[in-house]
Design brief:
GO molecular function: protein kinase regulator activity
Strand content: under 5%
Structural class: mainly alpha
Keywords: Repeat
Shape: elongated
Largest sheet: none
Number of strands: 0
Pfam family, one: HEAT_GCN1
Oligomer: single chain
Distance between the termini: 119 Å
Protein name: GCN1 activator of EIF2AK4
Organism: Cyprinus carpio (Common carp)
């Protein structure tokens, strides 16, 4: 042990360290520290070779007390040596981040100053005022003589800042030392002011919260102590600090200015505004971001103090510096920092200047990121400016700036304004504004993370409408926006949109020019933007939603080209087949079958991979209990035949399930009889001469004497459809006479259904050739006692005359028809009365002009002419201005 004790006193640093390690190993770390401190106090070695100052903040009280006593011993015994050796460390200790070191440093520094000035520090300094002093001029001179002016200023500055420390014991110790060694506080403060401010600026910019608090309190205390008269002395120091190469000092200047203005009256700030404003202005354009951020807080305090004048004095210069390449980047960030702390005041000032042509979207975008909800108040001005700018510069940078502004709006009110105003802009006639609006919308909804579910319906409605826009870029941007919205929807949200989406699709279809909606026919895009919603409706929706989704999908198929549909065939067809195989109401099945039929008609061969499933599905639907489902299944099967490679087995299977046609013509069921007759008539167009002769002689034109009226009815129906589908064959020399007689016989039959089918056959013959015998029979039919016969005759005559290819009738043949139709315009039956007017329009060819009416007026009697004129004024003129109907008179087609 004596060897270790002697080693502790050795001049070699390495020897002492080894001794300390031995002590630490033998005893404890505390003993090690104490041993090193005691060695230092005895030998007075270099401070770097010991842990004394750090020990002043040690967690162990024994270590701290030992270090403090060691320091006091050195000061009392070796004062002159201590100044050179210990004072630099104590100066640093005054400004240490740890309060224990600050406290111990104040204590030791006090002991040193007391020793130098020849006073005792044990006297009490508790008085009513903290500015009472007990120092003397002689003690002040002694301190300056021992330390020198520069070091004395640093030491006293540290003590004065200690009076505002965050810890009470530090404040009390600093105040005690200050009162004993300082003779006059205001005079001393003025002497040390430059040094004090240099230290304060560093503290104000420190990352240590305690240091910033100490500096802020000290500044406020300075202005309070010295009064506002000190400002002429402080502000030049601050201005000089802003020119410092040290960034923390420049940052401290800004923080210091803020603290000074907090403790200064408005009038005083206004008096010195000529000095303050340039300082703040320069700091806002400082190259260092931390300085600009601090300067913004200074601006905030300046604005709080002097109001709007701060805006007028600082912002115009910042805007001007945006034009300077060297300062534009810093000035822009300075504006951003100002916006971050005072957006509600700054934004009303900046918006009119930034939105005036040419619109500065770059600055708007940069500032909007920190504008907060204040931005919403100015959207009414900003949005039109953005649209105007983007319309003229549809480049990527301009677009990105506009999107940045919009994405900065995060409140619900602002979101609603954006959506409503931009959608309204898409309704305008200006294609550039429409494109700009939808471009911004696309950017917003592709990137925003906000919840916009409350606006989804109105958004999709406006965007579906834009799918009819003539501008290709508007179409593409609208499609992308819809896609961005729909791909974020959950299943529940998708289902809730089906009704509205169907309505929007119908509205778009009503306005489409041509067959297809341009937005659904974009290359590599097609209908995939809305398909997920409709697909979800078909697969998981309620029965009502399934039906609505299928109808909507059918509308989409009608509006889309085959090429655009092909990439989505699998996604469309699979769900339709799957749900059609389940047990749902007939309304759902008919909707699904209608959609599949439309798809088959549109893409045809593209559905060939699904042929087996489709055939099975349609054949199953043919057996459904609902007639509507069976009819739709038959239509779908008819479309499927066009892509079927082996049709014969399919026909054979269907034929085996029904009686032969001749037997079907005898069916008591009107629907079956009519459908069978229609099939027989249509078949005539595809038979060979021999087969046709056999069918006509044995069935259609066979002798009807003594046969049941239902057979006659079936044959008359078959004859009418045969004339319709194969007029050239049936009007040939071999059959023309027999066909004409059979048609006339049916048309004059006493059974109303037979007469009606005969009159229809007359119409099909008249389309092929206008035979006088047929024309002379029509007036009689128009005046028949049966309203059904009168109505059918009117419809047939309308159907014949509405075609442009039908030659004009001779006046002698037209006159009785006109008179009969005029009589029917007063018929008791509403349908007969209405149809007679439409037939008159076709017969007189009023849609082509008034020539037909004028020529017929010349051969009519006065009573008929008066009736015709009255009818023309009442209804014919209006009807002739409307498009004609495309209705079919064939009643064998199942509907």
């Amino acid at each position: 042990m004596p060897i270790v004790q002697r080693a502790f006193q050795d001049r070699s640093t390495d020897t002492r360290k080894m001794a300390a390690q031995i002590i630490g190993n033998m005893y404890s770390l505390t003993d090690q520290k104490v041993g090193m401190i005691l060695t230092w106090s005895v030998r007075l070695s270099k401070i770097d070779d010991c842990v004394c100052v750090q020990a002043l903040a040690d967690e162990n009280e024994y270590v701290r007390d030992t270090a403090l006593r060691a320091g006091q011993r050195i000061i009392s015994m070796y004062a002159e040596t201590a100044i050179a050796l210990l004072l630099p460390e104590l100066e640093q200790g005054l400004f240490d981040n740890l309060w224990r070191i600050r406290f111990s440093s104040v204590q030791l520094l006090g002991d040193l100053l007391f020793h130098i000035s020849g006073v005792t520090g044990k006297m009490t300094t508790e008085t009513a005022s903290e500015d009472d002093n007990f120092g003397t001029t002689q003690s002040n001179k002694a301190i300056i003589g021992a330390l020198g002016p520069e070091r004395r200023n640093r030491v006293l500055s540290g003590l004065y800042m200690g009076r505002s420390d965050t810890q009470l014991v530090v404040r009390q110790a600093s105040l005690h030392v200050w009162k004993i060694v300082v003779s006059n506080t205001p005079r001393t403060l003025r002497e040390i002011l430059p040094t004090l401010f240099t230290l304060l600026l560093g503290f104000l910019a420190s990352t240590c919260p305690d240091k910033r608090t100490i500096a802020a309190r000290t500044l406020g205390d300075l202005v309070k102590k010295l009064g506002e008269k000190i400002l002429p002395e402080i502000i030049p120091i601050l201005e000089e600090g802003l020119r410092s190469d040290k960034s923390d000092e420049r940052q401290g200047v800004c923080i210091g200015l803020s603290e000074i203005m907090k403790s200064t009256s408005k009038d005083a700030v206004l008096v010195f505004s000529e000095s303050l404003v340039p300082t703040v202005r320069k700091a806002l354009c400082d190259p260092l971001e931390e300085v600009r951020e601090a300067a913004a807080k200074t601006f905030e305090q300046l604005h709080t103090t002097i109001g709007h004048q701060a805006l007028d004095d600082i912002l115009p210069m910042l805007l001007k510096q945006l034009e300077d390449e060297e300062t534009s980047e810093f000035a822009l960030d300075g504006l951003k920092q100002v916006m971050a702390v005072k957006s509600r005041s700054v934004l009303p000032y900046l918006v009119p200047k930034l939105t005036a042509p040419p619109v500065n979207t770059r600055v708007l975008a940069f500032l909007s990121a920190v504008a907060g909800d204040a931005l919403t108040r100015h959207l009414g001005v900003i949005l039109p400016a953005l649209l105007s700018s983007l319309k003229d510069k549809l480049g990527s940078e301009e677009c990105l700036n506009c999107q940045t502004v919009i994405l900065s709006v995060e409140d619900e009110v602002g979101q609603r304004i954006i959506i409503e105003d931009l959608l309204e802009a898409t309704r305008g006639a200006d294609a550039g504004l429409r494109q700009a609006s939808v471009t911004i919308l696309n950017g917003y909804f592709s990137r925003t993370r906000l919840d916009y579910s409350a606006h989804t319906r109105i958004l999709l409605s406006g965007l579906i409408r834009l799918m009819n826009d003539p501008n290709p870029e508007v179409l593409s941007q609208s499609w992308d926006t819809i896609n961005s919205i729909t791909k974020k929807l959950d299943a529940g949200s998708q289902l809730s949109l089906i009704d509205d989406l169907h309505r929007d699709i119908r509205s778009a279809a009503a306005e489409v020019k041509g067959q297809h909606l341009p937005g659904f026919c974009l290359p590599k895009k097609g209908v995939t933007c809305i398909l997920p919603v409709l697909r979800e409706g078909v697969l998981t929706g309620s029965p009502e939603q399934k039906e609505e989704a299928a109808r909507a999908l059918g509308g989409v198929i009608k509006l889309t080209s085959a090429e655009a549909l092909r990439p989505s065939v699998v996604n469309i067809t699979g769900p339709l087949i799957r749900i059609l195989g389940d047990r749902f109401a007939w309304t759902v099945k008919t909707a699904l079958l209608d959609t599949l039929t439309l798809l088959l008609a549109k893409v045809g061969i593209a559905l060939k991979p699904f042929l087996p499933q489709l055939q099975t599905t349609f054949l199953k639907a043919l057996q459904d209990s609902s007639r509507a489902v069976r009819l739709r299944a038959a239509e779908s099967l008819g479309q499927l035949v066009s892509i079927h490679t082996k049709v014969d087995p399919l026909f054979t299977e269907q034929l085996s399930a029904i009686p032969v046609f001749s037997a079907s013509l005898l069916q008591s069921s009107d629907a079956t009889r009519m459908a069978s007759a229609g099939c027989v008539g249509e078949l005539c167009a595809f038979l060979s001469e021999e087969e046709l002769r056999s069918v006509l002689q044995q069935h259609v034109l066979a002798d009807a004497s003594g046969v049941d009226w239902m057979v006659r009815h079936g044959r008359s129906l078959a004859l009418a459809i045969a004339v319709k589908s194969a007029p050239d064959q049936l009007c040939s020399e071999e059959y023309s006479s027999s066909v004409l007689e059979a048609v006339l016989s049916s048309a004059t039959a006493d059974r109303i259904p037979i007469a009606c089918s005969g009159i229809r056959a007359m119409g099909y013959l008249m389309r092929h050739q206008l035979l006088p015998r047929l024309l002379w029979l029509l007036p009689q039919s128009l005046q028949n006692q049966s309203s059904d016969i009168r109505l059918v005759t009117e419809r047939v005559l309308w159907w014949v005359c509405k075609e442009a290819e039908t030659p004009a009738l001779e006046p002698s043949l037209v006159k009785p028809l006109i008179k009969a139709l005029l009589d029917n315009t007063k018929d008791k039956n509403t349908s007969v009365r209405a149809q007679s007017e439409h037939t008159l329009v076709s017969l007189l060819r009023l849609r082509r002009g008034d020539d037909g009416m004028q020529s017929i007026s010349a051969i009519l009697d006065s009573a008929s002419n008066e009736l015709l004129s009255e009818c023309y004024r009442r209804s014919l003129k209006k009807i002739s201005s409307l498009p004609d109907s495309s209705e079919e008179i064939d009643d064998t087609i199942l509907t």
